[in-house]
Amino acid sequence: MCLAIPACVEEIVAEGCAIVNLSGVRREVSLALVEDVKSGDYVIVHVGFALQKIDPSEAEHTLALFAEMQAQNDPFSAE
Protein backbone atom coordinates (compact mmCIF):
# COMPACT_ATOMS: atom_id res chain seq x y z
CA MET A 1 0.00 0.00 0.00
CA CYS A 2 1.24 3.49 -0.81
CA LEU A 3 0.56 6.48 1.36
CA ALA A 4 0.58 10.16 0.46
CA ILE A 5 1.10 12.49 3.42
CA PRO A 6 0.06 16.13 3.91
CA ALA A 7 3.02 18.47 4.30
CA CYS A 8 3.36 22.19 4.80
CA VAL A 9 5.45 24.09 2.26
CA GLU A 10 8.07 26.05 4.20
CA GLU A 11 10.15 27.47 1.38
CA ILE A 12 10.31 27.53 -2.41
CA VAL A 13 13.98 26.79 -3.10
CA ALA A 14 14.16 26.67 -6.88
CA GLU A 15 11.93 26.53 -9.92
CA GLY A 16 9.77 23.49 -9.30
CA CYS A 17 11.23 22.55 -5.88
CA ALA A 18 10.26 23.30 -2.30
CA ILE A 19 11.22 22.42 1.25
CA VAL A 20 8.25 20.89 3.07
CA ASN A 21 7.73 19.93 6.68
CA LEU A 22 6.51 16.36 7.19
CA SER A 23 5.69 16.22 10.90
CA GLY A 24 8.96 17.91 11.85
CA VAL A 25 11.08 16.39 9.10
CA ARG A 26 12.17 18.88 6.45
CA ARG A 27 12.55 17.50 2.95
CA GLU A 28 12.95 18.82 -0.57
CA VAL A 29 10.16 17.78 -2.95
CA SER A 30 9.31 18.39 -6.57
CA LEU A 31 6.45 20.75 -7.42
CA ALA A 32 6.38 19.62 -11.07
CA LEU A 33 2.87 18.18 -10.74
CA VAL A 34 1.17 21.15 -9.04
CA GLU A 35 0.71 24.81 -9.93
CA ASP A 36 0.68 28.01 -7.94
CA VAL A 37 2.20 26.67 -4.70
CA LYS A 38 3.58 29.14 -2.16
CA SER A 39 5.00 29.04 1.36
CA GLY A 40 2.35 28.12 3.90
CA ASP A 41 0.35 25.95 1.49
CA TYR A 42 -0.28 22.30 2.29
CA VAL A 43 0.40 19.66 -0.35
CA ILE A 44 -0.03 15.91 -0.51
CA VAL A 45 3.44 14.31 -0.90
CA HIS A 46 4.24 10.87 -2.26
CA VAL A 47 7.77 9.60 -3.08
CA GLY A 48 9.25 13.09 -3.29
CA PHE A 49 6.53 14.69 -5.41
CA ALA A 50 3.78 17.08 -4.35
CA LEU A 51 0.67 15.62 -5.99
CA GLN A 52 -1.88 18.34 -5.20
CA LYS A 53 -2.64 21.24 -2.90
CA ILE A 54 -4.91 20.50 0.05
CA ASP A 55 -7.07 22.66 2.27
CA PRO A 56 -5.18 23.53 5.50
CA SER A 57 -8.00 22.35 7.78
CA GLU A 58 -8.19 19.01 5.95
CA ALA A 59 -4.40 18.63 6.19
CA GLU A 60 -4.41 19.36 9.93
CA HIS A 61 -7.29 16.92 10.48
CA THR A 62 -5.45 14.17 8.56
CA LEU A 63 -2.21 14.80 10.46
CA ALA A 64 -4.10 14.65 13.77
CA LEU A 65 -5.54 11.26 12.76
CA PHE A 66 -2.04 9.98 11.91
CA ALA A 67 -0.77 11.18 15.31
CA GLU A 68 -3.66 9.44 17.08
CA MET A 69 -2.98 6.17 15.25
CA GLN A 70 0.71 6.39 16.11
CA ALA A 71 -0.07 7.01 19.80
CA GLN A 72 -2.38 3.99 19.90
CA ASN A 73 0.31 1.77 18.39
CA ASP A 74 3.13 3.04 20.64
CA PRO A 75 4.06 0.18 23.02
CA PHE A 76 5.65 2.67 25.42
CA SER A 77 2.63 4.97 25.77
CA ALA A 78 0.94 5.06 29.17
CA GLU A 79 -2.60 3.75 29.21
TrEMBL record:
InterPro entries: Hydrogenase_HupF/HypC (IPR001109). GO terms for biological process: protein maturation. It comes from the Bacteria. GO terms for molecular function: carbon dioxide binding; iron ion binding. Belongs to the HupF/HypC family. This is Hydrogenase expression/formation protein HypC.
